[in-house]
Amino acid sequence: MGLTTISESTPGGTVSGVCDEKFTGVVEAFVENLTSRDEVGANVSITIEGEKVVDLWGGKKERDGANWEEDTVSIVFSCTKGATALCANMLVDQGKLDLDAKVADYWPEYACNGKEETTVAMMLDHSAGVPHVRPQVKEGGYNDYDYMVDLVQNEEAFWVPGTRNGYHGVTFAWTVGELVHRAAGKRLGQYFADEVAGPLGLDFWIGTPESVEPRIADMIPTLPDADAPLSKFTQAVMSDPTSPSSLFLLNGGGFNFNSREAHAAEIGSANGITNGRGLAGMYAPLANGGELNGVKLMGPDTLARMGRISMGTHEDATLLIASRFALGFMKSMDNRALKDTPDSSAILSESAFGHVGMGGSIGFADPENAMSFGYNMNRMGVGILLNDRGQSLIDAAYKSLGYRSNASGCWTR
Predict the structure, then answer these.
(1) Is residue 3 part of a domain?
(2) Which domain holds residue 149?
(3) 326-375: per-residue pLDDT in tens?
(4) Per the domain annotation, does 341 fall within a domain?
(5) Using CB atoms within 10 A of its CB, is residue 245 exposed (0-12), middle (13-18) or buried (19+)?
(6) How distant, in Å, are the alpha carbons of 45, 57, 319, 398 from that of 373?
(7) Is the pLDDT of residue 51 over 70?
(8) CA angle, 274 as apex, 272 and 276 as ends, to 5°?
(9) I need a labelling partner for 20 at 20 to 30 A (CA). Which of 29, 59, 144, 394 fits?
């Protein structure tokens, strides 16, 4: 594959990088994001069979500020769940975790308040029944790992584990993260560094060293239009403070995602620091049989199992949209027809699995096409899943591969 160097001026700043000529549509979409979709700064990266075919960066680290550089990184929020899920599935592959075993076999303290029959698989597919915690989280609580583990293990189940699913938007950091800790004998952040990021040479941390801080672009929140109709999720947040939706969004102990404390903490659901290149690099082995360039993450059977749908519903108990989850990963989700709920879809191929991050970042593997994809940015969107910036890049990638339509809810040829 021959790569062409890209350098193009846009109203939002210069676009730099490289692209295989087959994927010029991705360049066009990236430029359009900076031209007319209010992208501030971003990186998109794509590999095919482990080889780079797209790596673009551009815009600004902050509005009217310094340029977004090749090595700029940002917090990718729930894209971190993909990294955490990968660690757990690697331990399954090694025989150190059993998906069908009870969580209590590894974590006896968890077996209380209706959670006694919870299995490892339920922790991964968001059916464990602990979508959040009811006690008020103390100031800075998310940054205190042991404190949050204690809250989670003592929480009363919101439903009988395994009987339905509701997005464990933040608690995934401690439900799955503590299982990784118990099974691996080391904390999640260290395990990920030792077994994934280090061997693959990724700029990707769960617990980021201070030396990286100058490269981190702060996230720019976006407020919803005051005249926009309220989604069911927003209505639940506003009307029922005891609901999983409201607790997930509002009971966060004043978490400041742009603070040094938040970047340094170990929050395996929400505070990974990387860029599109790091996300694509993490998923590249998973798009190619579980092994790449001599780095083996898992065998083919574990890979096949972890990418299949494990739990789905017409209405997620937390997000109040239709959702489809594999073992810790999102599958293609199509909520485009849902009334008053914009930007709540992520349209991939049927074989793909990965994870969206709050505001619109995403990383995923597509084994059918041996493709990995990563996108991060600093201006957040308002929807639950992807907005038009990230989805347009994914759409362009699939069109470059000869895909015809996503009308079915997945990209098809």
Answers:
(1) no
(2) 75-386
(3) 999 999 999 999 999 999 999 999 999 999 999 999 999 999 999 999 99
(4) yes
(5) buried
(6) 6, 14, 24, 11
(7) yes
(8) 125
(9) 59
- CA 369 vs CA 242, 348, 355: distances in Å: 43, 12, 18
pTM: 0.98
State the pairing for strand pair 41-48/295-296.
unpaired
Q: Which amino acid is at 368?
A: E
Q: For the segment 124-154, what is each residue's pLDDT rounded down to a tens digit?
A: 999 999 999 999 999 999 999 999 999 999 9
d(CA 239, CA 237): 6
Query: What is the number of domains present in the chain?
Result: 1
- The confidence band for 1, taking pLDDT boundaries of 50, 70 and 90, is low
CATH code: domain of residue 140: 3.40.710.10
The reply to whether 131 falls in a domain is yes
Distance CA 384, CA 370 (A): 28
Question: The tokens of 134 are what?
Answer: 């009811």
Which residues are 371's β-sheet partners? 48, 366
d(CA 128, CA 118): 6
Which DSSP category does 214 fall into?
G
List CB contacts of 253: < 8 A, sequence separation 6 or more: 136, 137, 138, 139, 140, 141, 142
Mean pLDDT over 44-55 rounds to 98
